[in-house]
Amino acid sequence: MKPDRQLLLGAALAVALIAAMIQWIVLPVAHYRESLGRSVVQAQQDLSLVTAQGQEYAELAANAPRNGRPANAGKGKPEQTLFALLENLATQRQLRANIEYIRPSVRQGADGSRHDVVEMRLNGVGLNQLVPYLQAVQATGRGIGVERLNMRSHDNKPLDVDLVFSALRKTPEAKTP
Q1: Is the pTM here over 0.70, yes or no?
Q2: What is the pLDDT of residues 1-46, one digit of tens each?
Q3: Residue 71 within a domain
Q4: For 80, which DSSP code?
């Protein structure tokens, strides 16, 4: 073989090798990096959108009306609903598992006041649990009283009772100027 042909064959082989490297290595790596960059940008945009929506939700939740009144109405932190108060007291006194139902309702008094009423049924509660719970309800200092109380002995345990009671909180109607 002549040297010119060897040189020409070597150059053609080098060009083919460079073209193959570009085709099967450089271009796929460049394409992967480009798509990775696009997905990172998209993920950052999604994250900023979710963060903004989370902040908006937190603001709305903080200012959402509760029982017809804004949560931040009045002074200090918002007052807990009667339903939540009774449920929290039951949880604190380990009576949550004994709750069969809790039914909140609102009545309008003859004097225009609002009466929040919660009817609760507790099953299989011992008197050693019941008395401290009812004392805690009365001792909240928020004008809450037990309106109605019905007890009967529990079927399986003679020392336990099934209880249905209604708690009432009277709220005066706000004066409008």
Answers
A1: no
A2: 687 889 999 999 999 999 999 999 999 999 999 999 999 999 999 9
A3: no
A4: P
Asked if the structure places residue 74 within a domain, the reply is no
Q: For residue range 42-91, list pLDDT tens digits in order.
A: 999 999 999 988 888 888 877 766 555 545 555 555 567 888 888 888 88
- 87: domain CATH number is 3.30.70.60
Say if residues 40 and 33 touch (Cβ distance below 8 Å): no
Q: Enter the tokens of residue 27.
A: 């271009």
Please state the domain count of the chain. Answer: 1
For residue 9 the two structure tokens come to: 């064959």
Let me know: does 116 contact 81? Beta carbons within 8 Å.
yes
Per the listing, tokens 């099953």 go with: 123
Cα angle at 116 between 111 and 120, to 5 degrees?
A: 140
